[in-house]
Design a protein that fits this description.
The protein has 273 residues and is of the alpha+beta class. The chain is built from seven helices and 14 strands. The structure holds zinc ion.
């Protein structure tokens, strides 16, 4: 069942990001499909992580039960500053929460559509940046649990955004920013008891995406409204497929949609004589 659902693409940082889509038991290198015709056809059914099938998700990619019961959908998932496992206080499932929260987390600055502050778990940093379509990123702090990263993020939200403006991200490359300089300036606003976690290393990761053409007037397409989406793939950035006619498709927001994915060469008149 899960093998025919859309999932976010796997990413690999090379000269340009390499994207792979795992579907129908195949692992498709999406970069190879740029300039070709792709087609996504939704069956009309979605499947929750718990295995329940339905016509649509209740909310945020979960069924009703999971949205209210699963630790994956708890408040602190969306607001890390509400994490309490480091105090031994349960939200929905203390064992799960300890396992998830009591691990090294990073606070970073990324430039995708302007600067944003974000947090990520363990070694997920670069993957998170590629998923967000960031062009540059720097680690700001390494902390021993998720709550501390949430506290740092909150302290910096007054100065920089904590969400990506995806329309701006998909409209081109952002102006480069001196992230090391910015990190130094923002670090002064980190609460004193968390200053010890600021990382001295100022390595900036630069990321390029396989995009041949950016949309001019972005039209976001969704399977709920258009169950068959097909067209020429013009590029990939973040977890968005850029299609002809200024259309963009967020593959991540369609996780769990049971669909077929296919592709073919575009018939070129010049090659036919
Ligand atoms: Zn569920």
């Amino acid at each position: 069942m899960m093998k025919d659902t859309l999932k976010k693409m796997d990413t690999n940082l090379q000269n340009v990001v390499q994207y792979r889509l795992d579907i129908h038991g195949e692992n498709i290198l999406m970069n190879d499909l740029i300039g070709k015709q792709i087609k996504i056809e939704w069956s009309g059914v979605v499947i929750c992580g718990c295995g329940k099938k339905m016509k649509k998700f209740y909310r945020s990619g979960f069924c009703y039960e999971c949205f209210y019961d699963s630790p994956l959908a708890s408040q602190s998932i969306f607001k890390p500053e509400l994490c309490t496992a480091h105090l031994g206080i349960e939200e929905r499932d203390l064992e799960w929460e300890k396992n998830f929260q009591l691990a090294p987390h990073y606070v970073y600055l990324a430039n995708s559509s302007g600067i944003k502050v974000g947090i990520t778990r363990g070694s997920q940093g670069v993957i998170r940046w590629m998923d967000q379509g960031a062009s540059q990123a720097i680690l700001l702090a390494e902390v021993p649990n998720r709550r501390f990263s949430g506290d740092i993020e909150v302290s910096l939200k007054r100065f920089v955004a904590d969400v990506t403006n995806w329309r701006k991200m998909l409209s081109g490359n952002p102006e480069p920013v001196d992230l090391a300089q910015l990190k130094e300036e923002l670090s002064a606003h980190v609460p004193e008891e968390l200053q010890q976690y600021i990382l001295p290393n100022n390595t900036v990761t630069e990321i390029k995406y396989p995009v041949t053409q950016y949309p001019k007037k972005i039209k976001s397409v969704k399977l709920e409204r258009t169950p068959i989406i097909e067209g020429t793939l013009l590029g990939i950035k973040g977890q968005y497929l850029l299609l002809d006619d200024d259309r963009v498709f967020n593959i991540r927001s369609h996780e769990g949609f049971i669909s077929t994915f296919s592709h073919q060469e575009i018939a070129q008149q010049g090659l036919l004589f």
